[in-house]
Structure formats: structure tokens, C-alpha cells
Amino acid sequence: MSSSGVKSSIRIGVIAGLIDVIIVLSAMITSNSSVLLADALKTSLEFIAVLVAWYTMHRISRDPDENFQYGMGKLENISSIAVAFLMAICIILIVVNAAKDIIHPEHIEGVGIWISMASELIYGVVNGYLWVKNRRLAEAESSPMMASQAKLFLTKTLGNIFIFSSVGLSCLLASHAWVVYIDPIASIMIAVSILLSALGILSNSLFDLMDRTLEESDQIVILRALAKYFQEYEYLHGIRSRRSGSEVFVDIFLEFQADRTVGNVQTIIDSIRRDIENEIRGSHVSICLTTEKEC
User: What are the CA-CA distances from residue 81 to residues 27, 46, 148, 207, 271 (Å)?
Assistant: First the structure.
């Protein structure tokens, strides 16, 4: 996948999100449902999260300047954390409204109910499509931002399903007294799904923001490349690695025999670098010559 595919996916998310916000706000205003109030606030926050992703992609797509010579890849991790905090706000709103409905239950009514059901049905399909598309982009680009977007659209899809089901059952079974508790129960289930996604986003983004070393599978790729040329260098003095958004930086410190020519050493360095960069997507490998242990 190219960066244009990532930008296109985010652009679609922004447009779809804006239309969704307008519809759910209309539904909220024309109904007495506290669940639709929570849905409107949640949808607005989700739209903000997509806008943050769009701004982040716009910034990191620029060429590195003299102030950010390694690029702005960590902005992806920061934006992912921002998305997680927005999801936490959604959880609080949903739980508060669910508690209110449990303490003071009432039947829902108003034309906004039917607007909401139509909206949830349509956007269940739209958000499901965007979830699949962003998940594929996240896997192809190794992008934490796209991974957080995929999780966000998954929770939006689950939210569409639960809200459509709860509102639909509330209308179909309005003659039963217990039906007033359907909305708060569905809302709590939505909150749980958002919580799980937010925890996953935070765990991945916080570790990468603190320059955690690469995953074991990537480290094996590096060691395999070094083992392939182990007879060409004298000592391995250290390996450093970190992620910066979807970019990977690897520093390898090698010592070569003193009688080797610069041209011969450079050929070996180029071969090792090429092998690693071909195996690890988005990697930038630097091989430094040294006679002392570096890490």
C-alpha cells in the first residue's frame, strides 16, 4: 500500500464522519433518548479522532527538515494516544448515560428514533468497510496511526450494531416494562468494547514512544543477516533499534580487520544493510565502524 492509499482512507473517514455527526445530532435533537445523546457525543469525539489522524498524516508526509531530521514518525504514536484518550471520554459519557437510564428508566420516542435506526444501519456498513480497509493499511504500512484508526472504526461498527439493536428492540417490545433497560445494557457493552480497544492502542503507542526495541521477529531478521556475513567482520559490538511511527531505525556497530580496504568493507556494509532493509518494511539501517562496545 502507498501513502496515497493511507491518505485516501483517512479522507473518506473524515467525509463519512462529518455526515454521520450531522445525522446523529439531528436524531438526538428530535428524540428524548439519552442513548442517542451519548451516541451523538461519541460520534463527535470519533470524528475529532479521525481529524487528528488526517492532520498527523499531512504533517508526517512532509520531507524531514533541519529541526526533525529523523522525520515526524512519533507524531503517529502521539496521535494514537490522543485517540485513546478520546475513547476514554466516550466511555465516561456512555457509562454516565447508562447509569442515568438505569436509575430513571423511560421509553424512548420521537422522530429521531427512526432517523437514528436508518443512520446506524447505513453507517454500520460504512464503518465496517473502513475498519477492513484501515486494518489492511495498518498491516501493509506497519503504521500505529492506521492501527488505531482500524480499532476506532471497529468500535464504531460495534456501536452501530448495538445502538440499532437496542433502539429497534425498544420500539418492537415497547409494551413490556423491562424493555427500558435494553438501552443502558447495550451502552455498557459498547463501553467495554471501546475500553479494550483503547487499552490496546495505549500499550502499543506508549512503548514505541519510549523507544522500545524492535519485536523479536525483526531482531531475528537482523541477526540472520549478520550471521550470513559473520566471516567478513571481526566483532559485533552492539545493536540498537527503535520505531518512530511506521519507520524503523537500526544501528549496528561492527569491527573489521585492520588490513581490510575501505572499498571492501563498504561492500560488506551495503550487503548487510540491503538484506535487512529488504526484510523489515520501513527500516533505515546504519552500520558504524568501531573498536569499542557501544551497547
Answer: 30, 13, 9, 11, 37
pLDDT beyond 70 at 124:
yes
Residues 73 and 198 in one domain: yes
Where b means 16+ CB within 10 Å and e means fewer, 76-113 reads bbbbbbbbbebbbebbebbbebbeebeeeeeebebebb
Joined grid coordinates for residue 249:
531505525
Whether residues 183 and 42 fall in one domain: yes
Query: Which of 56, 92, 61, 96 is closest to 76 using CA atoms?
Result: 56
151: closest CA among 127, 187, 180, 125? 127
Distance (Å, whole) CA 221 – CA 240: 14
Q: Is the pTM of this model over 0.70?
A: no
